[in-house]
Amino acid sequence: MQLEGKTALITGAGSGLGREITLAFAREGARVLATDIDAPSAAATAAACREHTEGVDSCVCDVSDSGAVKAAFARLDEAFGGVDILVNNAGVVHTDPGYVAHVSETQQAQVVEMMTEGKVKTHLCTVEMLSDEMFDRMLRIHLYGTFYCTREALPRMRASGRGGRIINMGSIMGTASLSGAPDYAAAKGAVLAFTRATAREAASYDVLVNAIAPGFIDTPLLSPFSDDSKRMIALQTPLGRLGEPAEIAAAAVFLAGPGAAFITGQVLSPNGGIYMAQ
């Protein structure tokens, strides 16, 4: 029960990594507020958490809307009186069929060209395909959402005198910049930089801020990927498979728990070895 007596707010808690992290926190004894843009999904996660812990609530929250974020934290104050742990997990990937098909078909063509001719002739050109609205949406949900929630959490953590933990969801795309989603890579790279800046600022009142940068994890966010694409990713991964949501949740529990008391401004990257860096 590493998180007994702690209160956590998790964004994007209705499915995927957010749901798994919320459940893992509940199993460790935390009180949890499950938030998601989809209210029924958030409520379903909360219902599952009630099997493991007392003090569970849910609410709808669009993290790209600062007013909605304020309302979620007001709900947290009313229900639990404060926050000890914030997990900025909410995120999206491209789902437009035309865009996804273009990326998949181009990447497959490039592999064939490299193997047969030693040179890429089919060009990706995704930067040119991004509209203002696509780029803005990606940054608003990932980067602005992380900022809005962090801005609400910090003064509450400081006022409590207990410090706190903030865990931001990055990605290997924020450092490795894999092809196919330049806006996603930009957003996640900015999240990692914001993590370090916030960690340096908040250290004086004992708020530890870290990021998790997963590799390719088997969640609904990978649903736009074809089975062939997933197999190709697994083949490129030294451990030979996609990650499981529970493995990312375990990293979040560690960063939220007592074992991470001397860790701040860092990036933990469970990725099966597909990306390795200092």
Beta-strand level of the residues, as a percent range? 5-15%
Distance between the termini: 32 Å
Tally the beta strands: 7
Q: What is the average of the pLDDT values?
A: 94
Q: Low-confidence segments, ≥5 residues, pLDDT <50?
A: none
Shape: elongated
Strand order of the largest sheet: 3-2-1-4-5-6-7
Number of helices: 9
What radius of gyration results from the CA coordinates? Answer: 19 Å
The succession of helices and strands, N to C, reads EHEHEHEHHHEHEHHE
Give the class from helix and strand content and strand pairing: alpha/beta
Largest sheet: 7 strands, parallel
Query: Helix amount, in percent?
Result: 40-55%
Key structural traits:
278 residues, 48% helix, single chain, 9 helices
How would you explain this protein's 3D organization?
- With 278 residues, the protein is of the alpha/beta class.
- Strands 3-2-1-4-5-6-7 form a seven-stranded parallel β-sheet, with helices on both faces.
- The two termini are 32 Å apart.
Quick synopsis:
The protein has 278 residues and is α/β, with parallel strands linked by helices.
Indicate the topology.
Elements: E1 7-10, H1 16-27, E2 31-36, H2 39-49, E3 56-60, H3 66-80, E4 85-88, H4 97-116, H5 126-129, H6 132-160, E5 164-169, H7 182-202, E6 207-212, H8 227-236, H9 245-256, E7 267-268
Parallel strand pairs: 1-2, 1-4, 2-3, 4-5, 5-6, 6-7
